[in-house]
Amino acid sequence: MKASEHARVWRGASNRLEVHLDKAIKTGRSKTAIGSAAAATQLALAIADAYEEEAENASD
């Protein structure tokens, strides 16, 4: 799988995690649940960004 494909997969994962985060906030989940969802979302975004950077560097 190419870096650009990995980036797309991780970007999609971050979008789904963000939906779960919003739901956790709206339903009044615990601070721990909200924090975990936020951390997972940020991690997925960071991984997607790293793969996008790798894809850009490979195309140079």
Automatic annotation (TrEMBL):
* Species whose genome carries this gene: marine sediment metagenome
The name of this protein is Uncharacterized protein
